[in-house]
């Protein structure tokens, strides 16, 4: 069932091992990164505390090995084993809430993922790595959608895990679309929490960033990511959670929905979960902590208390009666130069009736792309969702993998990604010109000339992904601004007529086409599938 693990000492206090666990529940091989403390295994009969972490493929972007080495060497943490579970292109379906997929059927494999964790992962890790089966010594954590998954696992399985850590959790996960009569009651995890009381052993570390996004559904001046988290805290308290004992909430001023932010606040979570008895305790009062990133500091990450200041999130007042607050200054080391910057936030999609383009709105050639956009899906929503798909597909490739081709004369993965970026720029520019009533005919372009002269192969994948995120944010802002009348405007490009509406469908269809090619032809060659 298992391949032979490989060992790679990375630092004085941490050792990395890779495992591959075949899951019958998921129908695939799951890669695990195991981080072991110095001295493992100890001569003692005692089992190690354990942290299970979703999105294990992001360990390098979190700089987690370096953080652990630093905290272990300073005796801030007790020894524990970290089990990082890698996600793949099925992330949007394996992560979520086990009891219910979202309104778009994302998370429809979350129940299978839960069974994988319970039936396959835990027995393997407990047997192989001498980790504790005591729920008080087992913590599950994750980021974004992986954070929602961690919360769901701990909430419904207190017999296995007592504590959860959630970084920028996707607590917005809902059963109804925003343009389909959505109300706050449609948030799935809030409904599940409202249906039962927390377990006496439950403890939660929850984190948001004030720049996690820009969306503000209810127009109260607080971004949705913070609103959804604070609403969940209120609900937990109403259901009987004792905040002084069972909750720590960290609101990070200037924090983004990105591994760089999560890596910088990681020491706070780790000390909350595995703080050594001899370490200086976390700043009090607890459990709610307002924090900010000091971007100018050059010191190593540590927590420094500073004087209290006025709250900027008015919604936090709703929970002040139950939880106390303090501001911390997170002095973080600068991000590495080759690190992918945070994915740029995009504006919320405005409700608008969009009709599918018909024959005559585009060249027949483009029907291949338009047909890849499901009939019941708003193409703007698909453009938004593809951001995560591209990150999942390309973000884990090494430079060596990204330079491989599946056949002679074909593009590398880097060239494919730059082609997606270039094409989006060209087509979005056409849509802009035509929407503004510009009657001037526009020339076509040779995609192979662009690939040959684009220089993709000498750039880092993180740099290309950062450019992709910036272009997609600009595209979404543009298409979200179009009126129904502008969508019907027509222009000429590459010697053929095309409507703005058709371009809006071609964009996500073109990207889906290349994602399909990547999964079907590139991944097998790269040994990923």
UniProtKB/TrEMBL annotation:
GO terms for molecular function: hydrolase activity. Keywords: Hydrolase. The keyword Transmembrane helix does not apply. The keyword Hydrolase applies. Pfam families: DinB_2 (PF12867), Esterase (PF00756). InterPro entries: AB_hydrolase_fold, DinB-like, DinB/YfiT-like, Esterase-like, Mycobacterial_A85_antigen. Residues 383-516 form the DinB-like domain. It comes from the Bacteria. PANTHER family: ENTEROCHELIN ESTERASE-RELATED, FERRI-BACILLIBACTIN ESTERASE BESA. This is Alpha/beta hydrolase-fold protein. The lineage of its organism: Bacteria, Pseudomonadati, Bacteroidota, Cytophagia, Cytophagales.
């Amino acid at each position: 069932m298992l391949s032979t693990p490989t060992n790679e000492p990375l630092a004085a206090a941490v050792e990395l091992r890779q495992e591959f666990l075949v899951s019958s529940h998921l129908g695939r091989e799951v890669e695990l990164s195991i981080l072991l403390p110095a001295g493992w295994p100890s001569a003692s009969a005692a089992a190690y505390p354990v942290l299970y972490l979703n999105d294990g493929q992001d360990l390098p972007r979190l700089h987690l090995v370096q953080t652990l080495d630093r905290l272990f060497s300073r005796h801030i943490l007790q020894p524990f084993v970290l089990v990082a579970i890698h996600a793949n292109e099925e992330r949007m379906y394996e992560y979520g809430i086990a009891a219910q997929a979202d309104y778009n059927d994302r998370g429809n494999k979350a129940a299978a993922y839960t069974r994988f964790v319970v039936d396959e992962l835990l027995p393997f890790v407990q047997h192989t790595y001498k980790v504790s089966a005591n729920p008080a010594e087992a913590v599950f954590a994750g980021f974004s959608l992986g954070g929602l998954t961690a919360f769901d696992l701990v909430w419904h399985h207190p017999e296995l895990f007592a504590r959860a850590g959630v970084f920028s959790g996707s607590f917005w996960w809902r059963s109804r679309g925003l343009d389909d009569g959505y109300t706050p009651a449609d948030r799935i995890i809030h409904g599940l929490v409202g249906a039962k009381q927390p377990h006496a052993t439950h403890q939660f570390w929850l984190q948001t960033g004030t720049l996690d996004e820009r969306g503000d559904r209810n127009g109260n001046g607080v971004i949705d990511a913070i609103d959804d988290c604070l609403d969940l805290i209120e609900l937990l308290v109403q259901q009987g959670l004792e905040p002084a004992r069972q909750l720590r909430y960290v609101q990070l001023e200037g924090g983004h929905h990105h591994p760089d932010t999560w890596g910088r606040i990681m020491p706070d979570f780790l000390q909350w979960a595995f703080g050594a008895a001899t370490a200086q305790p976390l700043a009090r009062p607890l459990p709610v902590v307002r924090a900010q990133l000091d971007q100018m500091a050059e010191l190593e990450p540590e927590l420094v208390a500073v004087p209290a200041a006025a709250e900027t999130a008015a919604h936090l007042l709703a929970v002040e009666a139950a939880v106390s607050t303090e501001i911390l200054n997170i002095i973080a080391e600068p991000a590495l130069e080759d690190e992918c910057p945070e994915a740029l936030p995009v504006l919320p999609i405005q409700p608008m009736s969009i009709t599918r383009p018909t024959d005559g709105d585009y060249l027949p050639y483009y029907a291949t792309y338009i047909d890849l956009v499901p009939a019941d899906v708003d193409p703007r929503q698909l453009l938004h969702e593809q951001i995560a798909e591209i990150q999942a597909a390309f973000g884990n490739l090494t430079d060596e993998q990204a330079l491989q081709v599946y056949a002679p004369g074909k593009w590398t993965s880097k060239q494919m990604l730059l082609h997606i970026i270039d094409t989006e720029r060209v087509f979005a520019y056409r849509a802009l010109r035509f929407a503004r009533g510009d009657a001037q005919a526009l020339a076509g372009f040779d995609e192979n000339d662009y690939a040959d002269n684009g220089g993709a192969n000498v750039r880092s994948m993180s740099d290309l992904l950062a450019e992709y995120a910036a272009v997609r944010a600009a595209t979404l802002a543009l298409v979200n601004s179009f009126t129904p009348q502008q969508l019907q405007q027509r222009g000429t490009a590459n010697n053929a007529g095309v409507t703005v509406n058709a371009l809006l469908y071609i964009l996500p269809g073109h990207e889906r086409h290349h994602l399909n090619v990547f999964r079907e032809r590139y991944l097998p060659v790269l040994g990923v599938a």
